UniProtKB/TrEMBL annotation:
It comes from Hypocrea jecorina (strain QM6a). This is Predicted protein. InterPro entries: NAD(P)-bd_dom_sf, SDR_fam. The keyword NADP applies. The lineage of its organism: Eukaryota, Fungi, Dikarya, Ascomycota, Pezizomycotina. One of its GO terms (molecular function) is oxidoreductase activity.
Amino acid sequence: MPSNRLEGKVAVITGAASGFGKGIATKFAQEGAKVIVADLSQEAGQQAASELNGIFIRTDVTKRSDWEAILALALKEYGQLDIVVNNAGASYSNKATEGVIEQEFDMVMNVNVKSIYFSTNILVPYFLKENRPGSFIQIASTAGIRPRGGLAWYSASKGAAITATKALASEYGPKQIRFNAVSPVVGITGMTNLFLGSTDISTFVSTVPLGRPSTPADIANACCYLASDEASFITGVNLEVDGGRCV
């Protein structure tokens, strides 16, 4: 049952119109947070925001101006910002690495890494100026800690997200700004076929000790804990939500 663990907090979740992002936004709203749905999809984003009594902003996470607009909207509508979830992600299809074209490389690095740079470069100064504690959560991947062939540059981008999270946690801990990451194992989302090269997930699931893929609720529950005051002494952590896959 919801326990209002995020009551009084304002959260922005990127890629919140579907998949893990929508699961996170739904959980946060259930726990009392005011939610900003930031997504490229206008229709799905507006629908999600309407369902959650939140607000939608069309966002390309690779653009500085869109991050500036997120901060301006949060301050205009709610007067504050407390939680930032960098969930929006991109991948190319699982394939031989020599077949990855430059545009695909740029896509995963810009969406999965540069977006984190923009979020910190633009939003951290707000927390510092207001002397306000904050919580940043990156949605990384088990691919960032247990990489395999076929998705080398995607894995590298998620590894970078995890390393950056730890470095930022060390740097901004003294200012009470926390940085953590959550690493899901493959789940049933719109990107599943890209990761696996097929829609048949059964072979992969056989490698997960708990015997199933991750769900949006699994990831949302982990994020809710990390965003809440219950985790006020937790920073620099990469929480594997993977059913034991990385053991």
